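Could you join me in thinking about how sequence relates to backbone shape in a protein? Label the sequence line and the structure token line clearly, so we can match residues to local backbone shapes. Once you have written the record down, we can walk along the chain together.
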Amino acid sequence: MDVRLQISMVFHLDKCIGCHTCSVACKNVWTDRKGAEYMWWNNVETKPGTGYPTAWEDQNKYKGGWEQKNGQPELKMGGRVLRVLNIFHNPDLPKLDDYYEPWTYKYEVLFNSPEGADQPTARTISMVTGKYMDVEAGPNWDDDLGGSPVYAANDPNLEVLTEEQRAELFEIERLVFFYLPRICNHCLNAACVAACPSGAIYKRGEDGIVLINQEVCRGWRMCVTACPYKKTFYNWSTGKSEKCILCFPRLETGQAPACFHSCVGRIRYLGALLYDADRMLDAMKVPDDRLVEAQRDLILDPFDREVIAGALKNGIDERAIETAQRSPVYKYVKEWNLALPLHAEFRTGNGRRHRSRDGEARTRTGKHLRRGSGGNISADFVAHDERAVRDTAFSSRRSVADAERRYVGGERRGRFGLS
């Protein structure tokens, strides 16, 4: 048993109001600079919808994630030989039109126009070319268009539905949509890490956060294709790839990531999970219908004596183990079975889960996965659980000095019941 620590997330979809405050907070902190104008490390999509970039879930188009070949998981974009052959021309990359061409406005016209009978207009200017342009798309272009025949009807997830079911989805009386906030999943089995020819992408051993070494990156963009969630971006100004870093400078100082901190609906839960890295490959080999349970089985009980001993052996700090024991993510994912991974069939073992109403977690539009055989969960039960999670979260906010006092005087190993 190889015990590792993963900082994981749960997003409560029923509480998301689609305000995009998280997206703006992330943009202002990390991607408000040249070459990153089109990047939205955090974005909120309307489902059904095509998302950002357009149809990112269609892996027949983008070739992201893993697939089973001869009983082994392999990158859908192809093996090492094929990647080398395509290294100077990657045919499966999203184009700028699949994202959008970022723009600004010629504001000086509003201030410097001479007096006249007409209202001056600030025309749109491309932030890439500097020329006038017509705006045709944006990062949330299909916002709230859950019944749109252009956007919602082209959601790749609807392919699993019959024509009759599709028609029912778009009837006025049955029309429904929900919001799907997305960031990098910091996957356990990250496809971007495996695909990088330069070895620039790595997974931090202390917390599982996936990062790109900007000094090593050569801009081959294999990571962009390999990521099935399309959360790796290419900076056209620096010639480097970039992605969400889970605000690790904030985490290291005891603060929540910017998108978590700014969330109006308080839909985001952050916590630590312990998992068995030795069983990772076996969990990715199972058939699609067993992937959710296989990935959940990777998560270890942080109160188990053997797990604690294995964690300490691997250098995981005692306070990190305590954090895993208090983790709201562990409760949602492992204890209550209320949160499930987004697109488990991509076989990345992502570190983010989603939780929705009636004990369902949406992994595909129109194809919900329920928890166990218990059926729906009553509103009282869910509300009680959320109060417990909030109480747990608040109780963990102790000062550093208090935390230090608890681990002196020979208390470190004794508190876990170890000799």
